[in-house]
């Protein structure tokens, strides 16, 4: 019986393990540094981009490999060359054409057809005495459609145009509801204060007030912004033209629509008033730095300062020593017997203005007719309240609109339209433009809302009682 002996070759085994590790490292680094060579071989793809209808080359079209920064442009013959892989996807775009995406695959040459973007070029706009396709226009025209306007809860039509038409500047430099917004096209039209730079407004071909139109009744608005407007309307339109087309009835069954919106508005920023003690310290320091010989008689005494601290800490209550004259707007206290002994702590902005104001709007419209006669009617009601807290201030609007169209013959169409708008403005007769500024400039926080008997002060210059207890102004604007 023969006995076999097995001897392990340690050096051979070690060499085998070493070779296996080297192969693993080689594969690992190959994945890191040569992935494209191993999985997707890169190559240059040739191609051409042409118009789908005319077959003409599209010069300067953008060719981009999707998901990368690799791109190129077509030359004067519409040709291009770009490095791609088998799984690349090209994005081809050009102004006036619909953007297109294609897969490269294993193809070496691509012929790409671009379709015209008819959504913008075929858009019909109102210009001058008729309509034109936007593709045929050479002048600068901005367009706003009904869908853009109906979704904006605004008090007047000019506000709904904000941000819709480039070059149209809409501003309002007064917070009163009776003040209308101003419109400028492409900035300041004149440096003269006696000449209005407002554009000409035409409503269904007739000159009118843009704010007399209910935004819900507008079909489209075209804004003519350059010299083309003056070439049609002459000296009446040196600062541009705004053409408003209202809605018309459509043949078919009568359709009744009802829409409403309820909204709450709030001030974006309200000044924060000092407390009475901090104000008194600043005031005393200012008085001591004046050269007036009687300045010491106008400062707040230490007793009043202590009352201010105790009142704010809840240690004492009234009386607050309401000034006997009630003259809040005087530049200086009238002596220790008037304003210097008051220790109230009043935030006048919170007492005069509300944190938010409620508004509501309701709109009902009906349209219909047949192939010969169509009609469109609407009624709108809006109630807009103001932020004034101590008295009633607001605006109500009633709007009625009717439009009837009859096809008398193939060559003759009769259209009759009527629109009535009534705006009612209500505000305290003593409310003026300076109230907001005067509260910050002269409203002293140490003065109280109430007198020593706990009653609302009825002093003549006292803002809350002055506005709340006075009469009201009511203004009616009727536009037919």
Description:
With 480 residues, the protein is α+β, with helices and mostly antiparallel strands. The chain has eleven helices and 22 strands. The strands form six sheets. The chain has a six-stranded antiparallel beta sheet with strand order 17-18-19-20-21-22, with no helix packed on it. A five-stranded mixed beta sheet has the order 10-15-16-13-14. It has a four-stranded antiparallel beta sheet with strand order 3-2-5-6, with no helix packed on it. A hairpin with a 3-residue loop joins strand 18 and strand 19 (373-385).
Describe how the helices and strands are arranged.
Blueprint: H1 10-33, H2 35-39, E1 43-51, E2 62-65, E3 71-73, E4 79-84, E5 89-93, E6 100-103, E7 109-114, H3 118-121, E8 124-127, E9 130-133, E10 141-145, H4 146-150, H5 157-160, E11 168-171, E12 182-185, E13 200-203, E14 206-207, E15 218-224, H6 227-233, E16 241-246, E17 252-265, H7 276-288, H8 302-312, H9 348-352, E18 357-369, E19 373-385, E20 394-409, E21 412-428, H10 435-442, H11 463-468, E22 472-479
Parallel strand pairs: 1-7, 13-16
Antiparallel strand pairs: 1-4, 2-3, 2-5, 5-6, 8-9, 10-15, 11-12, 13-14, 15-16, 17-18, 18-19, 19-20, 20-21, 21-22
Keywords summarizing the entry:
single chain, 480 residues, alpha+beta, five-stranded mixed sheet, 19% helix, disordered N terminus
Low-pLDDT runs of 5+ residues are 1-13, 29-39, 132-138, 326-338
Counted by DSSP, the helix tally is 11
Please estimate the helix content. 10-25%
Total strands: 22
| Major sheet characteristics | 6 strands, antiparallel
Morphology call: extended
* Beta fraction: 25-35%
Report the average pLDDT across residues.
Answer: 77
End-to-end distance = 130 Å
Strand arrangement within the widest β-sheet reads 17-18-19-20-21-22
- Round the Cα radius of gyration to an integer and report it: 38 Å
Secondary structure category: alpha+beta
